[in-house]
Amino acid sequence: MPQPASAGFPPSPALSQAATGHKITAMNRQPHHHTPIVIAGLLALFSGCEKHPPASSPAATTEPPEQQTAAEPDGWIAMEMLEPGRWQPINGAAELDWDAESGVLHIDFGTDLNGVRWTGPLPTMPYEMELEARRVSGNDFFCGLTFPVRSENECVTFVVGGWGGDIVGISSIDGLDASENSTASMQQFENERWYHLRVRVEDERLQAWIDERPVVDVDILDRRLSLREGPVGDCAPLGLASWATRAEMRGMRWRRLAD
Q1: Under DSSP, is residue 44 helix (H, G, I), strand (E, B) or coil?
Q2: How would you list the strands of the sheet with 239-243, edge to edge?
Q3: What is the homologous superfamily of the domain 21-51+67-256 according to CATH?
Q4: CA count, 13 A, side-chain hemisphere, 89
Q5: Phi, psi dihedrals of residue 140, rounded to the nearest 5°
Q6: I want to staple 101 with a disulfide (CB 3.0 to 4.6 A). Which of 19, 20, 114, 232 is the partner?
Q7: 258 φ/ψ sector (left φ>0, alpha ψ -120 to 50, else beta)
Q8: Residue 212 CA to chain centroid, in angstroms?
Q9: In the prediction, which pLDDT does 79 show?
Q10: pLDDT of residue 85
């Protein structure tokens, strides 16, 4: 199959079958078909997507950002899925739904990459971030977590289940994507099963875990870090996406680490 242009808490509440969701229909990539974004309830504040955050968007990298929610006792700061004005569909995104009661983001099949981009304050270095994600159907990556490393202009993607469904790694290091560099590994993933993902970003080291099992541990000093060329750039500097796969994500949060 063609390679995708892709490019880390306590258990979350169970998905309520009776929960009422919010539906988002993003703009289609095809020319002359400008479908408006339709957002119910609190999500009415969403507008069209941009590849990069607007200049006025706060993006602190050295000082703690304004906290839109109170930090938990252990320092974790929740990033509510599709909070108004914070998460926005990426360019060309297909149908996205947010279940308000369970806090689950549903990402439907897209023509290629499908997902959302964070437009609020960014995590400050050094930090770690985590969420839960699962593949509902499809055979490619069900979580592409794009995040900043040494600055908001230097980003990578933690790819989970790519290249046919079982490749895990970081895209990109020294120009090599997650299927080609030293972070590449293979893991079988079950549909409908939640996986706990976590990444830790420090000045000289990048680490990642799946269900507390180490899958990435790489020295990034003097390494060239970048995004894989392609539409994943729309997720920068921080975003969530899947590739031709129906996926669900929940419970995303981050905390700053001690210097």
Answers
A1: helix
A2: 87-89, 113-118, 239-243, 143-151, 154-162, 167-171, 185-186
A3: Exo-inulinase; domain 1 (2.60.120.560)
A4: 31
A5: -140, -165
A6: 19
A7: beta
A8: 18
A9: 84
A10: 64
Q: What DSSP line would sit under 223-256, residue for residue?
A: --B-PPSSGGGGG-SSEEEEESEEEEEEEEEEEE
Give the pair of three-digit tokens for residue 14. 């169970």
Type of residue numbered 97? D
The maximal CA–CA distance of the chain, rounded, in angstroms, is 51
Residues in the chain: 259
Residue with tokens 């309520």: 16
| 116: nearest Cα among 158, 83, 84, 82 | 82
CA pair distance 183, 141, nearest whole angstrom = 16
* Pairwise CA distance, residues 225 & 150, whole Å: 9
CA angle 129, 203, 154 (to 5 degrees): 75
Q: Is 205 exposed, middle or buried (0-12, 13-18, 19+ CB in 10 A)?
A: middle
Euclidean distance between CA atoms 132 and 126, whole angstroms? 21
Instruction: Classify residue 49 by its DSSP letter.
Output: -
Asked if 190 and 169 count as a contact pair (C-beta separation under 8 A), the reply is no
Q: Rounded to two decimals, what is the model's pTM?
A: 0.74
The CB density around residue 196, as the number of other CB atoms within 10 Å, is 19
pLDDT along the chain (259 residues), means of 10: 38 34 43 35 33 39 44 82 75 85 90 91 95 96 97 96 96 97 97 98 97 98 95 96 96 92
Question: Tokens standing for 256?
Answer: 């700053």
User: What are the beta bridge partners of residue 156?
Assistant: 147
Q: What pairs with residue 197 in β-bridges?
A: 131, 210
Q: Are 160 and 144 within 8 A, CB to CB?
A: yes
Nearest to 94 by CA among 28, 154, 159: 28
